[in-house]
Fold:
Amino acid sequence: MSKLVINKYVNISNEIQKKQLEMSKVSQMRPPSKGNENRVKVNLCVIVLETYKKVKLTSGSEVQTFLVSDESASIILSLWDGKGDQITNGDILLLESAYSNLHHKSLTLYCGAGGSIFKLGDFFFAYDDSLNMSNKSWERDENTGIWSMKN
Structure:
């Protein structure tokens, strides 16, 4: 079941204010400090830059990935079991309760069962794709458990 809600051509800042959301930036995304139980849920507004091929897993689940970006950076967004079926390049999305994690050493953004995706419009959105958070290497401080980007 997809939780994508399509609200075309609404004012993005009004929608965020109406929901009283604290917003994050893609450049602030980090892997969880100590395991999946410490995932930090964030709200992001992003534009879809690229859509990648949908993959069907041996478990029967389907995974759709996208390259998304805001004005700070870009990142891979991974959506499972139909959540990405109505999303296309150029869509502006509001992701509620999204989280990031490492997948094959690549920082990936997820919006799972506890999250929601709202389509706010399309094509008119400032973004910066020069910093791709998914292409960075990450190292974890063994004492604090905090991840940081390698240079």
